[in-house]
Design a protein that fits this description.
- This protein has two domains: 267 residues, 3-Layer(aba) Sandwich (Aspartate Aminotransferase, domain 2); 121 residues, Alpha-Beta Complex (Aspartate Aminotransferase, domain 1).
- It has a seven-stranded mixed sheet, sandwiched between helices. A three-stranded antiparallel sheet has the order 9-10-12. It has a two-stranded parallel sheet with strand order 1-11.
- Helix 3 runs parallel beside helix 10, helix 4 packs parallel to helix 5 and helix 12 packs across helix 15.
- It is an alpha/beta fold.
- Strand 3, helix 5 and strand 4 form a beta-alpha-beta unit.
- About 3% of the residues have low confidence.
- Helices cover 40% and strands 13% of the residues.
- The longest helix has 21 residues.
- It binds pyridoxal-5'-phosphate (PLP).
């Protein structure tokens, strides 16, 4: 029986070196990092080192790094935190996001919409890439936040984060010159009862961290979320980068942990693991995974009839291949492949427990049929060429079998 894991966008295994550095912080160095005695101080030292590693990776200060329970919480804190700090009950405020965000962002925005916040959902192109002009078109005077994911988790497409960062910078500097308190010509504008506020730029960078430029300064982002278990670190830990000076209200109340932005006893072992996972990214060779992904796509086209790629080929991470196999149910393929010892994922409806197929595939204009026949294969650092050969052979057999069974 094979044991092949092609679902690295869902989660990655914990790297052995990551586990090793975490272990002492469960039973030996177990002090509460907030305690003043030496048990606590020893834990705090480890947390400080982990935070420094993350700050080094993102190119920021250590006090701009907030550890959270994962990227879901980091996205919630970023979006709700900025909205709550902006007097949202009295002033109609506006945020811009995209149609194909992860639920951690999408559902947070929908929740805020119910609370009276105005939200624009920008549609990506059929290549799975958001156009900067389409973001720009949505910006209004009451826009205070733009949230665009760095890499889409289903189709692996890379978004123009740096370009959007530049746009936000430009709009913000124009706002400073337009501000009624600095320009007397605007002061008589009775329609405006408030000074123009800054737009903050948030990105969910969970799927980008292993493969893309992550320097927050170069990208021009104010808020960035990453997750431990997508980068060969542990589950249950994430990071939110919050640029110094960002007006953000905490959403979880309690102690003054994490620079008073996220209450809760510091999770020393997971933070140490996150630090190590991030450190290991900087030593990773991407050529092998890129080679495997290219080989996989070549073999699929050679062996499977009517297979099509979802999302841009050029603007995608080396781990991801999302394809549609015409006339076959993705769910059936997933289960058939699982029987053969291969783990992949699908944008077909049933697997997600909902009736609609993937909102991501719908947003890039796929037909229901193509979305139902979709497979997401996300490679990891331990995969081999032999595993790909075996997978393609199994998929070929299954696709032919299901197509024969399907009514004409
Ligand atoms: C996995 C994922 C999340 C959620 O991260 P957790 O740490 O599991 O909460 C958010 N956004 C994207 C793009 C993801 O892939």
């Amino acid at each position: 029986m094979q044991n092949i894991y092609f679902d690295n966008a869902a989660t990655t295994p914990v790297n052995k070196n990551v586990l090793e550095v975490m272990l002492p912080y469960f039973c030996e160095i177990y002090g509460n990092a907030s305690s003043l005695h030496s048990f606590g101080q020893e834990a705090l030292k480890a947390v400080d080192e982990a935070r420094a590693k993350v700050a080094n990776f993102l190119g920021c200060e250590t006090n701009e790094i907030i550890f959270t329970s994962g990227a879901t919480e980091a996205d919630n804190l970023a979006i709700m935190g900025v909205v709550f700090a902006n007097n949202y009950l009295e002033k109609k405020i506006h945020i811009i996001t995209t149609e194909f965000e992860h639920p951690a962002v999408l559902e947070t925005c929908k929740y805020l919409e119910k609370q009276g916040v105005e939200v624009s959902y920008v549609k990506p192109g059929s290549d799975g890439v958001i156009k900067v002009e389409d973001i720009e078109k949505e910006i209004k005077d009451n826009t205070i936040l733009i949230s665009v994911m760095y890499v889409n988790n289903e189709i692996g497409t890379i978004q123009p984060i740096k370009e959007i960062g530049q746009l936000v910078k430009k709009i913000n500097s124009e706002r400073i010159t337009r501000d009624p308190s600095t320009s007397s010509s605007l002061r008589s504008d009775s329609a405006r009862d408030d000074t123009l506020r800054q737009i903050y730029f948030h990105t969910d960078a969970v799927q980008a961290a292993l493969y893309c430029e992550m320097n927050v300064e170069n990208l021009g982002v104010d808020l960035m979320a990453i997750s431990g278990h997508k980068i060969y670190g542990p589950k249950g830990i994430g990071v939110l980068y919050i640029k110094k000076g960002t007006r953000l209200q905490k959403i979880q109340h309690g102690g003054h942990h994490e620079f008073n932005k996220r209450a809760g006893t510091l999770n020393t072992p997971l933070m140490v693991g996150m630090g190590k996972a991030v450190e290991l990214i900087q030593t990773r060779d991407l050529n092998k995974i890129k080679f495997l992904r290219d080989y996989l796509w070549q073999e699929l086209q050679k062996n499977i009839v009517d297979v099509s790629l979802n999302g841009s080929w050029e603007d995608r991470t080396p781990t991801n291949l999302n394809v549609s196999v015409q006339g076959v149910e993705g769910e059936a393929l997933l289960l058939g492949l699982d029987m053969a010892g291969i783990a992949i994922s699908t944008g077909s409806a049933c697997s997600s427990g909902s009736l609609e197929p993937s909102h991501v595939l719908m947003s890039i204009g796929l037909s229901h049929e193509a979305a139902h026949g979709s497979l997401r294969i996300t490679l990891g650092e331990e995969n081999t060429k032999e595993e790909i050969d075996y997978f393609v052979q199994q998929l070929k057999q299954l696709a032919e079998k299901f197509r024969q069974m399907a009514p004409k």
